[in-house]
Design goal:
- The complex is a heterodimer of chains A (417) and B (257).
- The longest helix of chain A is centred in the C-terminal third of the chain and has 16 residues.
- In chain A, the strands form 4 sheets. A 6-stranded mixed β-sheet of chain A has the order 3-4-14-9-10-13, sandwiched between helices. Chain A has a 4-stranded parallel β-sheet with strand order 7-6-5-8, sandwiched between helices.
- The mean pLDDT of chain A is 96.
- With 417 residues, chain A is an alpha/beta fold.
- The radius of gyration of chain A is 20 Å and the shape is globular.
- Chain A has 2 domains: 157 residues, 3-Layer(aba) Sandwich (Rossmann fold), CATH 3.40.50.1100; 222 residues, Rossmann fold.
- Chain B has 257 residues and is α/β, with parallel strands linked by helices.
- Chain B has a single domain, classed as Aldolase class I (TIM Barrel, Alpha-Beta Barrel).
- Chain B has 12 helices and 9 strands.
- In chain B, α6 packs parallel to α7.
- The longest helix of chain B is centred in the N-terminal third of the chain and has 14 residues.
- Chain B starts with a helix and ends with a helix.
- Classes of the chains: A alpha/beta (417), B alpha/beta (257).
- The interface between A and B is large, with 35 and 42 residues.
- The complex binds pyridoxal-5'-phosphate.
Chain lengths: 417, 257
């Protein structure tokens, strides 16, 4: 989609991105982003934007946030060298261990940051959507931590395939609402959360879980997750003796990826985002929005989306609930258009195999979302032998047991003997 | 007269006749795509302006009824191009001004210039775009206004006073005053402070103000009519249609006749 921008425009945009000038005043990352929301929510978005300006970068907010990250979330998360995987791939592989963060995925960085903000803005209650359930669990935990009631909207399809997380959310005090409308997955859950927000825009804080939606969410979520990339850079310098040659992260809405990528945009490394290739290339068979989508407006932002020629948003398929989404954060659409980040996809089967390989070689049960990043990293390592690779290990796979039990392990057959 | 002025005039004519303008909403092609034009003519025979809903996959400002109608119409193959084709065939029989209600993405995919052209040719006078705030509307507004078509702005009880003025000034056709803080299809009744709210909008607006969301009964239309120029009836009418009942009869009953 590089053709969306002239080379000069792409160059100018990338420089602006690296200089920290994006999004602009209108919430735009070049042509992407913006704020397409119902009139009822406009004042709420303006209040949120104002609240971010007033709080996010103050010493007071930052010291509270950083303290929570350190003492409650468990940051910095480890950077792990993967010796056996490195040997098999013929590369030097490092993993940024977001799976070790409290509640088991990167999602908690954003959730606790926004929960603190919600409190400061005087919200009476918090709502959130969730796909894989990781953001729902993180929101439930963060809301308990700051003392706010929390309701999580979750598609009925996802409730079934991520059942362990549903129980965790409820145990942490959140109400979980099953969404039966639309595609019954993440997109429908976001629609339903927005409908609820419209009913009480001044009392509700909407704790959005990825770098998607209307301005200022993509910006806010990026800021709260960029600790991932900042820590990774420092840890790579200290432990690996230098920055990676290539960086990989999976992309659903794009929050773990933007957190990892954003602080590394100016570095001399390849950056690759990995979307869900599902079962094939046809419309409806995957969630490879950047690879196969077209620009349009979905859920508040102008970005790349999976749609038909009438502008109807299409259903997606992925084995991983967290990547099963027809849109993507507008900043990723911009990074693709500038050519700075390349976006590829990995299919269901390959993701399952990668998950198994990581279990076998490194003793890490990673999330199905995260497994997609490993597929692309392995392929890249084959073509670029001997290079140093960093993979954002965005979450742990415990939540995926209902899906994984349907696919018996192929390698470790001894487990059953 | 520009197309959007036909909308204002239709509402004012009703007011001159001593009644509130009635703006029925239907989802195009629902419940039965084959009967789209028949249904449209039936509601147009009573309504002063008809609001045509363009089905969309993600109706985020709509409640269950309009969601259901939208998904079902899509299943039956309804699209913007299909709707324009049907209107083309029938336009000589329909003189009631039409306004289209559509989320932005189907309009964007269709292309704004072609949209304006086909709308003008088929009697569609104005557009209501529920996920397009004023700040993002310049491009489509220009394309529509070049053909004399209007972009109808929505205002809500949450809209602050300075913004209210800006939106009323920018609107064409009428000003759409959302009665409640919420989505379409509410059945909790109209809010107690509705009169004050509608008065405040009517005071600021030079265009007729039509109130919508949650209007179901003749008493609602009467209550709204005392403080606004018109009443928009959406989910309740869609439910009448989906039960296969007499839509024209229902609309007449709302006018107290
Ligand atoms: C472990 C994990 N990784 C990645 C994702 C995808 O989200 P994002 O692209 O916002 O990082 C999810 C979403 O649920 C997740 O649970």
């Amino acid at each position: 989609m590089t053709s969306l921008l002239s080379p000069a425009e792409a160059d100018r945009l990338l420089k602006a991105a690296i200089a920290g000038e994006l999004p602009d005043d209108r919430g735009r990352f070049g042509p992407f982003g913006g704020r397409y929301v119902p009139e009822t929510l406009v004042p709420a978005f303006e209040r949120l934007e104002e609240g971010i300006r007033e709080h996010l970068h103050t010493d007071e907010f930052q010291s509270e946030f950083v303290n929570e990250l350190k003492t409650w979330v468990g940051r910095p998360t480890a950077l792990t060298f993967a010796p056996r995987l490195s040997e098999r791939w013929g590369a030097e592989v490092w993993l940024k261990r977001e799976d070790l963060a409290h509640t088991g995925a990167h999602k908690i960085n954003n959730a606790i940051g926004q929960a603190i903000l919600a409190k400061k803005l005087g919200a009476k209650r918090v709502i959130a959507e969730t796909g894989a359930g990781q953001h729902g669990v993180a929101s439930a935990a963060a809301c308990a931590r700051v003392g706010l009631p929390c309701t999580v909207y979750m598609g009925a399809v996802d409730i079934e395939r991520q059942a362990p997380n549903v129980d965790r959310m409820r145990r942490l005090g959140a109400a979980v609402v099953a969404v039966e409308s639309g595609d019954k997955t993440l997109r429908a859950a976001i629609d339903e959360a927005l409908r609820e927000w419209v009913s009480d825009p001044s009392g509700i804080y909407y704790l959005l879980g990825s770098a998607v939606g209307a301005h200022p969410y993509p910006y806010l979520v990026r800021e709260l997750h960029s600790c991932i990339g900042r820590e990774s850079r420092e840890q790579m310098m200290a432990q690996a003796g230098g920055l990676p040659d290539a960086v990989f992260a999976c992309v659903g809405g794009g929050s773990n990826a933007i957190g990892l990528f954003y602080p590394m945009l100016a570095d001399d490394c390849e950056i690759i985002g990995v979307e869900a290739g599902g079962t094939g290339k046809g419309l409806g068979q995957n969630a490879a929005t950047l690879a196969t989508g077209t620009p349009g407006v979905l859920q508040g932002a102008y970005t790349m989306i999976l749609q038909n020629s009438d502008g109807q948003v299409q259903e997606t398929h992925s084995i991983s609930a967290g990547l099963d989404y027809s849109g993507v954060g507008p900043e990723h659409a911009m990074l693709q258009a500038t050519g700075r980040v390349r976006y590829v996809s990995a299919g269901d089967e390959a993701a399952l195999e990668a998950l198994e390989e990581l279990c076998e070689l490194e003793g890490i049960l990673t999330a199905l979302e995260t497994s997609h990043a490993f597929v692309a990293a392995r392929a890249w390592a084959k073509e670029n032998p001997g290079k140093r690779i960093l993979i954002g290990n965005s979450g742990r796979g415990d939540k995926d047991m209902p899906t994984l039990t349907k696919y018996p392990a192929k390698v470790r057959t001894h487990a059953s003997t | 007269m520009q197309a959007h002025e036909r909308v204002s005039e239709a509402v004012r004519t009703a007011n001159d006749e001593g009644r509130a303008g009635l703006v029925p909403f239907i989802t195009a092609g629902y419940p039965d795509a084959k009967k789209f034009i028949e249904t449209l003519k039936e509601v147009a025979s009573v309504g002063d302006v008809v609001e045509l809903g363009i089905p969309f996959s993600d109706p985020m400002a709509d409640g269950m009824t309009i969601q259901r109608s939208s998904f079902e119409a899509l299943k039956q193959g309804v699209s913007l191009a299909w709707i324009f084709d049907r209107l083309d065939e029938a336009k000589s029989d329909i003189d009631t001004p039409l306004v289209m209600m559509s989320y932005l993405n189907p309009l964007l995919a269709f292309g704004y210039d072609e949209l304006a052209e086909r709308a003008l040719a088929t009697g569609v006078c104005a557009f209501i775009v529920p996920d397009l705030p004023f700040e993002e509307s310049e491009e489509i507004r220009k394309a529509l206004e070049a053909k004399g078509l209007g972009l109808i702005q929505l205002v809500t009880p949450a809209t602050p006073p300075e913004r209210l003025k800006k939106l009323c000034d920018a609107s064409r056709g009428f000003v759409y005053a959302v009665t409640i803080t919420g989505i379409t299809g509410g059945d909790k009744g109209l809010p107690d402070d509705l009169a004050d709210y509608l008065d405040s909008v009517s005071e600021v607006s030079e265009l007729p103000v039509c109130a919508g969301f949650g209007i179901r009964a003749a008493s609602d239309v009467a209550a709204v009519g005392e403080h606004a120029a018109g009443a928009i009836v959406g989910s309740a009418l869609v439910e009448v249609l989906e039960r296969g009942e007499d839509a024209a009869g229902y609309l007449k009953s709302l006018q107290g006749s």
